Amino acid sequence: MEEPSQVKRAIIDSSAGAISGGISRTVTSPLDVIKIRFQVQLEPTSSWALLRKDLVLTAPSKYTGMLQASKDILREEGFKGFWRGNVPALLMVMPYTAIQFTVLHKLKTLASGSSKTENHTNLSPYLSYVSGALAGCAATVGSYPFDLLRTILASQGEPKVYPNMRSAFMDIIQTRGFQGMYAGLSPTLVEIVPYAGLQFGTYDTFKRWTSVKFQPFYLISNFY
């Protein structure tokens, strides 16, 4: 079977990455909303307060556990509250995965000298790590403004500070300028380099190991 052309391959990679990223993002949105609510909450949860005997609470914690937080969000904001910020999240994750897989394939093609996917498995773990890290950085830079908007919209409860994505975007541009859309980019890149590098480096390593380990089984299966 012939390998698709470079343009066709890029379209396949970007489309598959965007669709899979969009589906997984939408399904897991409620968990992400709850996570962000806990991250931006200044008051500790009740369990943490019990451990800190010296801590004096000035106000009760709004969210004290996942179940309680889920009930509160459902009661105050309805089901749509669990998908607050999902539109910018989709606008973030779909280009992120599309850019990531497209750049990853391009880098592996340059490193291996072949556009065939099966030849990419033979890359050294070092090159797999570097390719994954660079692809992750490219995807992060390309989609970061939407990630920022997602976090802002998902973190606000009731009453809302920003009614929609456009109002949040305009406020950031007016108060902080275009660079405000990339606030926090540096620590994010510091995080994504080892994360994406290890993710794809480990994936390629195990893929290469299993292909060698189970090669006799594959040969027998193909024979029959």
TrEMBL record:
Subcellular localization(s) per the UniProt record:
Membrane
An individual GO BP term: transmembrane transport
Q: Per the record, what is one GO cellular component? A: membrane
Q: Main localization of the protein?
A: membrane
Question: What's the protein's topology in the membrane?
Answer: Multi-pass membrane protein
SUPFAM superfamilies referenced in this protein's UniProt entry, alphabetically = Mitochondrial carrier
What Pfam family does this protein match (any one)?
Mito_carr
* Key words, A-Z: Membrane, Repeat, Transmembrane, Transport
Q: Which family does it belong to?
A: Belongs to the mitochondrial carrier (TC 2.A.29) family.
Write down the PANTHER family for this protein, in alphabetical order.
SOLUTE CARRIER FAMILY 25
Q: What is this protein called?
A: Uncharacterized protein
